């Protein structure tokens, strides 16, 4: 595994900012890291990048323990922090050359040119960073995080401040990078997670509350909603009394939204009811929750 976190905990005084979380991320995977403000996302990322030490637990990156190989691990990681701390009084090309020299990359001029093209900074490369818009500063931050061709890329709110066109371009770039590297991505934009992430982790109050593919979280059999249309009128009250059905919302006399909190496939329950009542089901489908609804359920 490129990233392996086991029982990771971070205390600030008596408060556990991160509370005994464990997860893994493999090569070629884009991992969405979600949670409300103050949940512990940035703290976790800072521990993985060895910027701050954990209070308890272990972190391994590319098979190396962060306690023993912190410097070596930093060479393997590209990191874009949330506040994007770049030098505003340097020119874009100059700044990326400076970062490249820190990492001692081979052929720095060629690599800087390549990265500038990758993140779309060709027209801005001769400007001072302080003269750029927030969106272009984010591109500079992303460029410095990949300048040394890292195996693991950790991005904290990487698309903050980008316009819709820039969003699309940077998302495509992250997807392309994620084909060969491990990418850990923190964001509050649910559409971004659905568009590019292979798997989603949600933390709340420092605790891990979900770890699965986005599609699996959205189609979770708990708290499910089914749309059904019968060929004849049906009593809403009668349908609501069927076992495992928690709520029935009438759309018309023949069409309903049926809700259940039971760990069953509600469609089978409705099909059995229709058979008993000699009804024909014209349409039945499971209404998939949005990732935003899933996020709210896990973090309320």
TrEMBL record:
Residues 3-230 form the ABC transporter domain. The keyword Glycoprotein does not apply. It comes from the Bacteria. CDD domains: ABC_DR_subfamily_A. Keywords: ATP-binding, Nucleotide-binding, Transport. One of its GO terms (molecular function) is ATP hydrolysis activity. InterPro entries: AAA+_ATPase, ABC_transporter-like_ATP-bd, Motility-assoc_ABC_GldA, P-loop_NTPase. Pfam families: ABC_tran. Transmembrane segments: none annotated. The keyword Transmembrane helix does not apply. PANTHER family: ABC TRANSPORTER, ATP-BINDING PROTEIN. Belongs to the ABC transporter superfamily. This is Gliding motility-associated ABC transporter ATP-binding subunit GldA.
């Amino acid at each position: 595994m490129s990233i392996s976190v086991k029982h990771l905990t971070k205390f600030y005084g008596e408060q556990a900012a991160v509370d005994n979380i464990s997860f893994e991320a493999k090569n070629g995977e884009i991992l969405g890291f979600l949670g409300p403000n103050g949940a512990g996302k940035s703290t976790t990322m800072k521990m993985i990048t060895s910027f701050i030490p954990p209070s308890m637990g272990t972190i391994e990156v590319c098979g190396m323990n962060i306690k023993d190989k912190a410097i070596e691990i930093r060479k393997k990681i590209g990191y874009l922090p949330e506040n994007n701390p770049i030098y505003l009084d340097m020119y874009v090309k100059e700044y990326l050359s400076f970062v490249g020299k820190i990492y001692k990359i081979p052929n720095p001029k060629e690599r800087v040119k390549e990265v500038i093209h990758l993140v779309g900074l060709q027209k801005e490369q001769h400007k001072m960073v302080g003269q750029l818009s927030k969106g272009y500063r984010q591109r500079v931050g992303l460029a410095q995080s990949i300048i040394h061709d890292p195996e693991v890329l950790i991005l904290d709110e990487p698309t903050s401040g980008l316009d819709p066109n820039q969003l699309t371009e940077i998302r495509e770039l992250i997807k392309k990078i994620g084909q060969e590297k491990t990418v850990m991505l923190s964001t509050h934009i649910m559409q971004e997670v659905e568009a590019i992430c292979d798997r989603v982790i949600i933390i709340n109050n420092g605790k891990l509350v979900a770890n699965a593919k986005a599609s699996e979280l959205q189609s979770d059999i708990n708290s499910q909603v089914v749309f059904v249309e019968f060929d004849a009128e049906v009593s809403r009250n009668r349908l609501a009394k069927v076992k495992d059905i928690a709520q029935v919302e009438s759309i018309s006399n023949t069409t309903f939204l049926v809700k259940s909190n039971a760990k069953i496939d509600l469609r089978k329950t409705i099909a059995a009811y229709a058979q008993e009542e000699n009804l024909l089901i014209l349409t039945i489908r499971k209404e998939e929750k949005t990732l935003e609804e899933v996020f709210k359920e896990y973090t309320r």
